[in-house]
């Protein structure tokens, strides 16, 4: 029986946080930011195994501070963070020995992810092969030229904010990453769904995420994330 894996990315340095501590390890509602994502996948009945991608120098600290005290028993392996996000994902995929199954790829800096979002992504990955948590944009979006002048206004009804988890059948995402690795120019890829769009003929399903499923990127995000995590604990 094929299993469902969650690759949780925690290898970033978070320059925009202006902090000496990587954002995934900053304190949030009594636990490091990354702990909240790990606990969501630990509690999810759909997820069988977790792979945590982090800097090799941090693995011992993470195990003693988060994994063991918080009883993250689904952890299959630590995988080393790479120079770029795609390298980190590839290292996470390399830690999975199965040839089949489902894999969810999640930014550890999204601590408010819920078991419901995880379940929807798992279901859509099984049905469609590829999906990504996302939500319709609320604001009008402008396309600008290099000088900061408006070029066009796309139809807001067609625009979605991409989130994580993004979930795929294992053979599909592995094939996309294999082809990506053969490219001379590997710039401009910001999420895993882009690789499936670019290198396969499978359409990516947009799965309902949540406006609360924010990514911590700048210091201003932390107070909002704390409110959202507190609310998740009470639900």
Task: Please characterize this protein's 3D structure.
The protein is of the alpha/beta class and about 240 residues long. The chain has one domain (about 5-235): Spore Coat Polysaccharide Biosynthesis Protein SpsA, Chain A (Alpha-Beta Complex). Helices cover about 35% and strands about 25% of the residues. The protein is built from seven helices and eleven strands. It has helices spanning about 35-45, 60-65, 85-95, 115-130, 170-180, 190-200, 220-235; strands spanning about 5-10, 25-30, 30, 50-55, 75-80, 100-105, 130-135, 145, 150, 160-170, 205-210. The strands form three sheets. A seven-stranded mixed beta sheet has the order 5-4-1-6-10-7-11. Strands 2-3 form a two-stranded antiparallel sheet. A hairpin with a 2-residue loop joins strand 2 and strand 3 (about 30). Helix 5 crosses helix 6. The radius of gyration is 18 Å and the shape is globular.
